[in-house]
Amino acid sequence: MFVYITDKNTNNEKILDIHKRLTESDKDLVLTKDGSGRPLLNEGYISISHSGEYKVVAISSKKVGIDIEKHRDINFQRIVSRFFKDTRISSLNDFFGLWVKNEAYLKFTGEGLKKLGKKNNYNKSRLYTFIEGYSMAIYSDDKKCAFCFI
Amino acid sequence: MVFEYIRDLLSTQFKTDKDKITLDTDIIEELGADSLDLVDLIMNIEEKYNITVEDDAALGLKKVKDVVDYIEQRQK
Asked: What residues make up the domain containing A42?
């Protein structure tokens, strides 16, 4: 799996072109959307997320879901009370970790916000906090991951 | 009235000039809302108008007009 971390305004076609060159593929990648707006690739799987100044794009031969969130001041307790009733969250950082792990899982399944807070396997999402001020999570059966800042 | 409230809310939430927000403004594409922004917006609407935004309906709230129409329908 390749995860491209880039400026929010970076064109998706540019990212796909870089991916094609990095993987030395001779096949052009074509990005479309399904009926619910979920991004689809003609070859492999893709998941896209953006928050704040960043866009992150995960491309894999296996199904994948990715989410990134910029840390900001938010009334997280009401969101936890409404959507994550059985979860104890006491800090903003912990909330963002919970959020992106959930979102990554829901993007993996394609269910989106509809299933927010419903019991799911979000805890198997992998959480990354190496971008200062952001939390990012990935859910995929593809365990190998190369992060590329472009 | 509903539009003015939503416009002011979005203006504060996304630090955007009120004059740049119209009924046709796309909340994700133009204001840069992410998933958490959308949930926060929905919760503000629910609290303000004492309504529950159904999960399926939330997915369709892409433009300011969609939000305004949804609220006004619930108020009838």
From this structure: 2-149
